Amino acid sequence: MKVMIIGGFLGSGKTTAIQKISRQLSDAGKRIAIIVNEIGEIGLDGDTLKSPDIKTEELTSGCICCTLKISMQYTLQTLEEEFRPEIVIIEPTGIAFPGQIREEIEIMGLSELSFAPIVTIVDPGRFGTEAKEIPRFIETQVKEAEILGINKVDIAPAEIVMATEQMLTELNPEAKILKFSAKLGDEQFENLLAHLSVPGTAKPPQEKQNSIEISEVSAHSVLYTFKVCSLNPEKGRFLIEESLQTIRDRVEEMNPEFIGHIKLSLKLPDFMVKGSVTSSEETPQVEFIPRKNEKFELRLLSAITKVPKDRLRNIVESTLEAKLKESDISFEKKELHHGTLTKIDGLMKKKVSY
């Protein structure tokens, strides 16, 4: 069983890259499993990565490099026994330390285990281009990588891409640096798959760190379900865009230089709308996906630097509930960590299994 760890900070494009890589490997006849780790209580990316011939598992409410190590071990052992994948692709949280994840997997006692080179994906438009400006936990992600992928070169200015490359070289001169667009699947992105086919090299063990504490990231997730919803695609896109813009602006009032990830997913009978925003300066990115859905719901995952968790929760929930009411949608709020559906606008409060 070969393990591929593909990490990077929130919003760097990990999910898009993994989606393309897993599909190519599966089409080539490989038996693929994916483990998606979300820091919040409710996952979003696992649903995006699901397909009939690729096994996907989600681990939520923590980070597999520190607080969810036991959950990761159980998941890997179960996959090995029941699914027998040739390749397991791991998408850690955006604050995880990939080298620490590898060290933990190495001592789990899994049979015939091998590793691809550790990949850290970087969005060149997210940070300053001086090494001293990089948060400590992101610096660790860069230093632990064997391959550094500068993503989104199709939209980032060439001078920013060049400055990012110089900065990454300064932080980790031994890493192979690739510049690509995972979204477009360009030639350089195809080269990433070739580099992943060679064995990875273990680095000397480092002192264990708690990524959640070091990153100063607060996270909150929430799920709203609908029994009936008459939104058409245009109104669904508008709901996502308006919600993201409002949340971004309200978070910016508390931390003008916040970085992180606010992700929304709206499922309705014949389509899905996904959107995200990753900083105070970014315009929300929204994607429309035609697909049949049995459940009608709105999911949000937020993970933001230096904003108190209670304030983040208030911002995202009050914004979403106001937007849903403006759209004349009856809804129930479901919180995994409380195990209840909260009573809103006269709806019945009840226990749920999840």
Task: Provide a short characterization of the protein structure.
InterPro entries: CobW/HypB/UreG_nucleotide-bd (IPR003495), P-loop_NTPase (IPR027417), Zinc-reg_GTPase_activator (IPR051316). Residues 3-178 form the CobW/HypB/UreG nucleotide-binding domain. By secondary structure, the protein is an alpha/beta fold.
Name the descriptors.
eight-stranded parallel β-sheet; globular; eight-stranded antiparallel β-sheet; 25% strand; 354 residues; alpha/beta; Rossmann fold
Secondary-structure-derived class: alpha/beta
User: How many β-strand runs?
Assistant: 16
Our Rg estimate from Cα atoms comes to: 20 Å
Uncertain stretches = 337-354
CATH architecture of the largest domain: 3-Layer(aba) Sandwich
Main β sheet profile: 8 strands, parallel
Taken from the alpha-carbon principal axes, the silhouette is: globular
Q: What is the typical, i.e. mean, pLDDT?
A: 85
What is the terminal-to-terminal distance?
30 Å
CATH topology of the largest domain: Rossmann fold
Specify the helix fraction band.
25-40%
Top CATH class of the largest domain: Alpha Beta
User: Beta-strand percentage?
Assistant: 25-35%
Provide an overview of this structure.
Pfam families: cobW. One of its GO terms (cellular component) is cytoplasm. Residues 3-178 form the CobW/HypB/UreG nucleotide-binding domain. With 354 residues, this protein is α/β, with parallel strands linked by helices. The chain has 2 domains: 2-211, Rossmann fold, CATH 3.40.50.300; 217-351, Hypothetical Protein Yjia, Chain: A,domain 2 (2-Layer Sandwich). The chain has helices spanning 14-27, 45-49, 69-82, 98-106, 136-143, 158-171, 187-196, 211-215, 233-254, 309-326; strands at residues 2-8, 32-37, 54-59, 87-91, 114-115, 119-122, 147-150, 176-179, 217-225, 259-268, 271-279, 285-290, 297-305, 332-335, 340-342, 350-351. Strands 1, 2, 3, 4, 5, 6, 7 and 8 form an 8-stranded parallel β-sheet that branches. The radius of gyration is 20 Å and the shape is globular. Residues 337-354 have low confidence and may be disordered.
